[in-house]
Every structure is written in structure tokens, then in C-alpha cells.
Amino acid sequence: MPENGHKGPPRVGGQAIIEGVMMRSPDRLSAAVRLPNGEIVRKIWESRAWFRRHRLLGWPLVRGAVSMAEALVLGLRTLNWSAEVAMEAERGAEASTQARKRDALGLAASMAVAVLLALGLFMWLPYQLAEWAQAQRNQALFHLVAGSARITFFLVYLALISRLKDVRRLFEYHGAEHQSIFSYEKGEGLDPEAVRRQSRFHPRCGTSFLLIVALVVMAVFVLFDVLVTTLWGAYPNALVRLLVHLPFLPLVAGVSYEFLRFSDRFSDRAVFRVLISPGLALQRLTTRPPDDSQREVAVEALKSALDPAAVPPALGRRGA
Questions:
Q1: Is residue 108 part of a domain?
Q2: Per-residue confidence band for 104, with pLDDT thresholds at 50, 70 and 90
Q3: Could you tell me which of 47, 89, 169, 230 has the fewest CB atoms within 10 Å of its CB?
């Protein structure tokens, strides 16, 4: 995401999608994927960050929650597009259209189930484990137990899904995304050799953001629960605690976003290199070394996000 007051080229962000990469610049969003026949196709959307359109949404803390919601919406949009392109390449345009109409409701339902499962696995279950450990009388101990369980579940989850073939491909494109962004931001150009020598570990990665969220949840809700239990007594159970916490999760996202933004700005300083090192280490699970063909897709997505005219006419442009 671009930075206010940032000197140098505008900040860009991205995401791995099915056999491709999504990139976002201050003015547009671009997705590029490679078809089985080797062709690269892309789609471009005009897109300006929500918090840059409305002054109130750009306030510190508020913009973090807004950015997280927007990233989810745009990520789903581009993932859905890449799935449609893959389906069309496999089954043909007519079959793809029919399947898209048939699966629209299923996609919405599956996303709702995924959100509920995530809340259950990463929020309710850690709270329940902390209660079973009889830690609820000391809020700091409670959240230390729950937070440790949450991070452990997250690491195990990443380790398990990274063994799946399709997920490994996704993580390779994730690495290609990081390498191309690094090469662009360092001013080294987007030629294959320059991109190839970049690191696949980026301090603004969403993986790092999720780890920061897990840590901020512990810190924020320790203070919050001390106040709640002092005024109203102990929570009756883990589910009630979760329901009370849910409305404050946007605040957690806001604090996490500001920390990630601040640490990225000063990532060249020793103290911040130490602070961001756990997030970079975690990217060893969520990125894989890409090949040159995957880097090429990431570069074309980045070029078209920055300037659609920069992409050679030989590349496909579906739905742009």
C-alpha cells in the first residue's frame, strides 16, 4: 500500500492468485495469470484505496481496519477471476459461464463457513484452552496461554497446507510477487536478472501482518479484559469472551496496520530489523522460490498496475 509522505516510487502491494499474481498501485489493480498453453492474460481495474477517497477513513487506526476489509474484498475478486480464467481454459467459455452462475452462491456460502471456522480455530479454541488451563483469573496469563495456542495453530495450519501441490504453486507465485516488488522499489528495474536476485521475504507481507495481529490481540485484550472483569466480573465462558471481543477486532487490525506501516518505513534500522524478523522468518512457510516463468507473470502484473501501456500488445487482456 502506498505511504503518505513516502519518498521515491509509489508503494505497491500484491497477492498470489491461481497460476498468477495480483498487483495494486495507487491508481489501479491488475491481475495476470498464465494459461496452460503458456499465454499470459490479464485484467485491469481502476482502483483507489478506500481510505484515500474519504478523509475520515484515512485516520490512523481507522485506515488499518478499512485496508484489511478492502484487501479481503479485492483479494476475493481477483482470486475469483483467476479461477474463472482457469475454468474457461479447461472447459471452454460457455461451460465457464454456466459454472460461474452455478457456483456464485456456493462461493459466498463457503466464505461464510471459512470465516466461522477461522474464528473458531484461532479465537474461540485458544480461549477455551486457556480456560481449561485454569488461567482465567489472571488476564495476562490467560492471553499468554491463548496467544501461544493461536500462534501454534497458525504455524501448524501453514505447515500442513504448504504440503499441498496447489498451495505450493500459490506460494511460489507469492515469492515471485515479493521479488518483483522488491526490484521495483529498489529502483533496480524489472528485467529477469534484477528480479531473480531479490529476496522473497518482504516486510509488508500479509503473513507478517497476521503474525502482528496475533501479538496485538494478546496485548490489547489483556488491558481490555482487566477493565471488563474489574467492572463486571469474570466472563462466564470462552464464547461470551469471544462475542465481547468481536466488535473490537477492527481496532486490533488498525493497531497492527500502523505498526506494520511504521516498521516498514524504518526497516533499515537495527531495532526494527529485529522486530520484523519473526514475520520474515514466517514467510519461509508462505513463500517458495519461484521459477522465471512465475516471475514473468508477476512482473507483467506489476507493469500493468503501474502503467497498462507498458505491457506488450502480445499479452492477452481479458475483461480489461
A1: yes
A2: low
A3: 230
Q: For residue 284, how many other CB atoms are within 10 A of its CB?
A: 13
How many distinct structural domains can be found in the chain? Answer: 1
Residues 80-103: b if buried by 16+ CB within 10 A, e if exposed: bbbbbbbbbbeeeeeebeeeeeee
Half-sphere exposure of 118 (CA within 13 A, CB side): 9
Q: Given a cut of 90, is residue 48 above it in pLDDT?
A: no
The range of the structural domain enclosing residue 97 comes to 13-310
The three cell numbers locating residue 299: 512482473
Please give the model's pTM, rounded to 2 decimal places. 0.85
- 34 φ/ψ angles, rounded to the nearest 5 degrees: -105, 130
The answer to whether residue 217 is domain-embedded is yes
**In whole angstroms, what is the distance from residue 302 CA to residue 320 CA?**
15
Provide the pLDDT for residue 315.
40
| Cβ atoms within 10 Å, residue 262 | 12
DSSP reduced 3-state for 45: strand
pLDDT exceeds 90 at position 201: yes
For residues 14 and 298, is the Cβ–Cβ distance under 8 A?
yes
Cα–Cα distances (Å) from 304 to 33, 228, 254, 267, 315, in that order, read 12, 50, 30, 27, 11
Question: How many CB atoms are closer than 10 A to CB 160?
Answer: 10
